[in-house]
Design a protein that fits this description.
alpha+beta, 23% strand, five-stranded mixed barrel
Length: 593
C-alpha cells in the first residue's frame, strides 16, 4: 500500500511520486492550504494539500489527530525559511494529489507529545497509543537490534538456539512459582519456569555442548524498577568449560554489542571478589562510576565510650563503616535529615556524621553531635578516611548486613544527587561468591541456586559449608547486575552433598529433582553458563529508568496489566474443568482488594 515510510523521505526523492501510510500527528489549516504532519514508525514528514485537488482536500479537511491516512504526492524542497535541518525530513515536503482516509480515530486519552502530563497508569491502560511515541518506537527498535546482535554473535560462536518447556514442574529456585492447574491430571499443577536452569543442564548431558536461548521466565516476587513477573533472559550454557571460558566469551559478546549498537568501546572488565565488593561498596553489584568507598573502623570504635558504635564494632556479626564524601560539608541539616530517613528504609536506626570544616583546629574544626564521644580516636579516624577540609563523613553502625545495605545505598544516592559520576560506563566481574547464606535462624540457603558448583571438595564442603566459596560470577554494569552464572555441579555425589547441607532429604530430592539426579549418572560433562537479563540490558543501553519502558506490554508494580485487566476472573465452567473450587470468603476478600 505504500512506497516509502514517512521517515525515509529526503532530498534524494525530490520530484518523485511517493505513497505513504501513517497516522495524522498534527493538522494545520493555513488560509485554505492544509498541512498534515504524518507519522509512522520511521519518523514524521510534512504533507501539503491544496484546494486544487478537491477530493484530497476534502479528506484532509476532515482528518483529525491519529486518523489513519494513505497519501500519494510529489516530493519537493520546502520553501526557503521553512526548512528544519534538525529533522531528518525537514528539508522536504510532499505536495499531495491523493488523500485516502483508511480509518478514523476517537480523540486519544492523551496527546503523544504531552505524555509527561499524564500518569503512567493512563499510559499503560492505553499502551497501544503510548507505543506510537517516537521515543518508545526507538527503544523497541534498539531492543530488536540488541536481540539480533546477540543471536548473530552466539550463532557465530557455535551456539545452538534450543527452546525449553514453559510448562514444567515446580522446583525451588529462590522465588515463588507461577502455577498452572492441569485439566488432565486433576489436583496437579504445572509451573512456569523461573529460568531454563535444569533443562539447559540436561542439554549439556545430552551432548549439545553450546546452547543459547532468548527465553521467557516467570517469578512471582515483589516488583521494583528492574523486575517484572515475566521477563526475558539471554540464557547461555556450554560444556567442557571453566569460569574464565564463560566469562571471556560473554564479556566479548557484551563489548561487541556496545560497539555495534552504541558505538561505545567498553574497557576490559576488571574482576573483584564478592568480599571486597561488600567491604568497599556495601553491595555485590557496585557502581564503580562513583568514587566513594566504605572504610572499616571497627577497631577504632571498639575503644570509644559510645555503645551505638562500640556495640556493633565488638559484635561478631556487627560492622561500623565510614563513608567520606569530598566537599560534602556543604550539605544542610535538612539534607542530612533526608538522608537519615533514606537509610532508615534499609533498617538503619540513624545516620551519624562529622563535618570537617578546618581540620588544623582539631576538635574545634569539626562539626558533629558525636565527635565528643571519640576524642581519643578522631585523628586516627580522619587519617584513615583521608579527610580534608570541606568533607563530610557518614557512619553506619549495626549488623553488617544492615550497614552494607544502608550505607551502600546511601553511597549510590549521594553519587546521583551530587553528580559524582566519573565515567559513562563502568563494567566489572564480581567473583568468589559464598556458596550459602544464612538466615536469622542460621539456616543455610544457596546464594545463587542449589546447582552451583562449590570451589572445594565434597569433604571440605561438609566440614565448613558456611565458609565455602562457589564457582559463581556476576557481570555488573553501572551498579546493575546484567547477568549471573556459574560452573554447575555435574557430579551426583556433590549434588547430594549440597542437598544434604540445605536440608533436602533423599526422598524430597528424588521428588523435586529426580530427573536431574538420574541424568547426572549418565556421563554428565563439566559445564557452566550465564544468564543475562535482556530487559535490564536494554534499559541501560537506552538510558531508561525502568524496564517497563523497554517492554512492549509490561505489568504494573502490583503485577497487573491495566490494558487487558489481567489477572481476571474465569468462568465457573473453566474452574470445573480444572477441578478447582474457590472458597467464597477468599473470593470476597479478593474482590474487596
Amino acid at each position: 500500500m505504500r512506497s516509502h515510510y514517512c521517515g525515509q523521505l529526503n532530498e534524494t526523492l525530490v520530484d518523485q511520486t511517493v505513497t505513504v501510510c501513517g497516522w495524522v500527528h498534527r493538522r494545520r489549516d493555513h488560509g485554505g492550504v492544509i498541512f498534515l504532519d504524518m507519522r509512522d514508525r520511521e519518523g514524521i514528514a510534512q504533507f501539503v494539500v491544496d484546494p486544487d485537488t478537491a477530493e484530497a482536500f476534502a479528506n484532509a479537511d476532515r482528518a483529525r489527530g491519529e486518523y489513519v491516512l494513505r497519501i500519494t504526492g510529489r516530493v519537493r524542497l520546502r520553501p526557503e525559511g521553512t526548512q528544519n535541518p534538525n529533522m531528518p525530513t525537514g528539508m522536504i515536503e510532499v505536495l499531495a494529489k491523493d488523500v485516502e482516509v483508511l480509518n478514523t480515530a476517537a480523540t486519544p486519552p492523551f496527546q503523544l507529545d504531552e505524555h509527561g502530563k499524564v500518569g503512567e497508569e493512563v499510559r499503560l491502560k492505553h499502551r497501544y497509543i503510548d507505543l506510537r511515541r517516537p521515543d518508545m518506537i526507538e527503544k523497541l527498535r534498539l531492543r530488536s537490534r540488541i536481540s539480533h546482535n546477540v543471536r548473530a554473535f552466539l550463532e557465530n560462536q557455535g551456539f545452538l538456539d534450543i527452546e525449553t518447556p514453559v510448562l514444567t514442574r515446580a522446583t525451588p529456585e529462590g522465588a515463588r512459582d507461577y502455577l498452572v492447574p492441569s485439566r488432565t491430571h486433576a489436583g496437579n499443577f504445572f509451573a512456569l519456569p523461573q529460568s531454563p536452569q535444569l533443562f539447559k543442564q540436561l542439554l549439556m548431558v545430552a551432548g549439545f555442548d553450546r546452547y543459547y536461548q532468548i527465553a521467557k521466565c516467570f517469578r512471582d516476587e515483589d516488583l521494583r524498577a528492574d523486575r517484572q513477573p515475566e521477563f526475558t533472559q539471554i540464557d547461555i550454557e556450554a560444556s567442557f568449560v571453566e569460569e574464565n571460558d564463560i566469562m571471556a566469551i560473554t564479556e566479548l559478546m557484551i563489548r561487541q554489542l556496545f560497539k555495534d549498537v552504541l558505538e561505545v568501546e567498553l574497557p576490559v572488565f576488571p574482576q573483584m571478589t564478592w568480599h571486597d565488593a561488600m567491604q568497599r561498596y556495601g553491595s555485590d553489584k557496585p557502581d564503580l562510576r562513583i568514587p566513594l568507598e566504605l572504610t572499616d573502623v571497627d577497631d577504632l570504635m571498639q575503644q570509644v565510650d559510645f555503645k551505638v558504635f562500640s556495640g556493633p564494632a565488638s559484635a561478631e556479626d556487627g560492622r561500623v563503616a565510614a563513608l567520606k564524601v569530598p566537599g560534602g560539608a556543604t550539605l544542610s541539616r535538612k539534607e542530612i535529615d533526608e538522608y537519615t530517613k533514606f537509610v532508615g528504609i534499609y533498617g538503619a536506626k540513624g545516620l551519624a556524621w562529622i563535618k570537617v570544616n578546618e581540620r588544623a583546629k582539631g576538635l574545634e574544626g569539626l562539626q558533629s553531635p558525636i565527635v565528643k564521644f571519640m576524642e581519643d580516636v578522631v585523628e586516627e579516624l580522619l587519617d584513615r578516611v583521608d579527610a580534608k577540609d570541606g568533607d563530610i563523613i557518614f557512619f553506619g553502625a549495626d549488623k553488617a548486613r544492615i550497614v552494607n545495605e544502608a550505607i551502600g545505598a546511601l553511597r549510590v544516592k549521594l553519587g546521583a544527587d551530587l553528580n559524582l559520576y566519573t565515567q559513562a560506563w563502568s563494567p566489572l566481574w564480581v567473583i568468589d561468591f559464598p556458596m550459602f547464606e544464612a538466615d536469622d535462624n542460621g539456616r543455610l540457603s544457596p546464594l545463587h541456586h542449589p546447582f552451583t558448583a562449590p570451589a572445594c571438595s565434597p569433604e571440605e564442603l561438609k566440614a565448613n559449608p558456611a565458609g565455602a566459596l562457589s564457582r559463581a560470577y556476576d557481570m555488573v554494569l553501572n551498579g546493575t547486575e546484567l547477568g549471573g552464572g556459574s560452573i554447575r555441579i555435574h557430579d551426583q555425589a556433590m549434588q547430594s552433598s549440597v542437598f544434604d547441607i540445605l536440608g533436602i532429604g533423599e526422598e524430597e530430592a528424588r521428588e523435586k529433582f529426580g530427573f536431574l539426579l538420574d541424568a547426572l549418572q549418565y556421563g554428565a560433562p563439566p559445564h557452566g553458563g550465564l544468564a543475562f537479563g535482556l530487559d535490564r540490558l536494554v534499559m541501560l543501553m537506552v538510558g531508561a529508568n525502568t524496564i517497563r519502558e523497554v517492554i512492549a506490554f509490561p505489568k504494573t508494580q502490583s503485577a497487573a496489566c491495566l490494558m487487558t485487566d489481567a489477572p481476571g476472573e474465569v468462568s465457573p465452567e473453566q474452574l470445573k474443568d480444572l477441578n478447582i473450587r474457590l472458597r467464597q470468603k477468599a473470593k470476597a476478600e479478593t474482590a474487596g482488594e
